[in-house]
Amino acid sequence: MKFTFLNMIIVTFFLFVNGSLFPYSHAALIDDLSYAIQIDPRDADSYFSRGYIYFVKEDFDKAIDDFSQAIRLEPTDDLSYYFRGKIMSRKGDMRRAIEDFTKALIYKPNHVAVLFYRSQAYRKVGEKSNAMKDLNQALKISPNQPKLWAWRGYMKKDTGDIGGAVSDYRKAVELDPGYAWAMNQLACILVSSRDPEIYNPEYALSYIERALVQEKSAAYYDTLGCICSELKQWKKAVEAEEQAMALDENVMFEERRNAFLKEKSYTQLIEEKRKIEEEKQFLKTHERRKKEKLWDEIVKRNKNITYRRIYPISGNTKLSRKT
Fold first, then answer.
1. Rounded CA gap, 124 and 121, in Å?
2. Based on the structure, what is the number of domains in the chain?
3. pTM here?
4. Is residue 206 part of a domain?
5. Cα 4 from Cα 304, distance rounded (Å)
6. What is the DSSP letter of 145?
7. Residue 316 lies inside a defined structural domain of this protein
8. Pairwise pLDDT comparison (290 vs 13), residue with the higher score
């Protein structure tokens, strides 16, 4: 896409100040670009620039219209595909987001941001192998981006590669020692893993304390509480959960605070929940089998009735008379 001199000035000002500190308002920028479009309706750059302002304003429908028009006028414009894809992703339309990100990558294959956001979209539609491929490609292009390492760590944890996740989170923190989110994720793994080679609450404590220096988050205080419970520092565990409760009304924090008051550790809580879920699943399966046996008896006794198991997992059935 070739930028006109006028639009370069307008958008450059906008990008630097994001429309907040500079007195030139969003509305004035849009007016200028709309006038440029009126003068030259085939100026793809003006449509893109106005679409970007709408994007920042979160006026997504208008942004989509402008990016789409820019694409019609300039079909090889990777940025219009990229921003339209981001909007589709935020709207929850992951398939259309993937289509736009893929188009953008045709015209700019090494666009790291596009690879990153496409990996997120792939994950949300269940295509985890494609998500991992995009992250690996992005890291080949830009190996010093801590966000990429942290996101791949998240993906590895999601797929059960806990050791790989720990390695990637550590790399992210190495590249950015103030990366609080990555430190919290790493601390969570170190305190919750059932693998004795990974479980290390002392290291977890050092990471979460560093994270809390960067950001006072309810989630981080909760992680601190869980770690302290593993170290049998009960008073500190309770205080951490109370800090989390003060920042967020999530009932989970109160439940954990109450457990820690009784000197019940985080891993004990996890084990209790696991056993409860196993019991629920057992009862669910048992009840389903009882219902199926009963329905089989009903069908045997009533030959003019048939039934179809619509949802075999839940055991729901539908009875219907033969025609």
1. 5
2. 1
3. 0.77
4. no
5. 78
6. -
7. yes
8. 290
